[in-house]
What we know:
The chain has helices at 20-27, 35-43, 45-52, 58-68, 75-83, 90-100, 113-122, 124-127, 136-139, 146-153, 170-178, 189-198; strands spanning 6-9, 16-18, 86-88, 104-109, 132-135, 163-167, 182-185. Helices cover 49% and strands 14% of the residues.
Amino acid sequence: MEGIRTIFFDFGNVIAHFKHERTVERLLAHSELGYDDLYRAVYQAERFDALETGRLPVDEYVSTVMHEGRLKCDELYFREVFKDIFTPNQIVCDLIPKLRLRHRLVLASNTNALHAERFLTMLKPTFDHFHHLVLSHEAGARKPEVQFYRVCQKYAECDPCGCLFIDDRADNIATAKAHGWHTIHYTHDDALYSGLDHYGIFRDS
Length: 205
């Protein structure tokens, strides 16, 4: 087996944890809707997908959610609480500089311009170790769509058999395997450590 040359990292629930619920909880006081209806207004699946693939402009997304969520706060407040959902996963953040010593690192994230603005600033020292960032709203596709993995492959600088993909979602892992990548399904820290050991990647190198 060819050694691992490039490691693709998911962001959400790998490099940092996130809670969409935090946004909805902070907006409740500014809407006449209940929690479930407000959650659906903010994260309506088709609209959110369009936002995260870059097909829906941020301004249009915000104005639509403000209307459908019957929100009485201003747009600046909405944007702030929409972005404020991330908590760094320090175990992974501490691991990344060590992996950079021997591997090419590429971010492979489903995200949007508002969320990316927040986490790229919040974790700038971590992302300074990455060779490239693939963000779904710029790539025009999201995991587990095949096109997203094709975009990522352009930045691997090696064949698929030299790539390792780390993600917390089984559907994303399945497409990565079909693409020819090695994978680690990150369900907990021990799964990450054992996966790295399996591929001969030493965390203290």
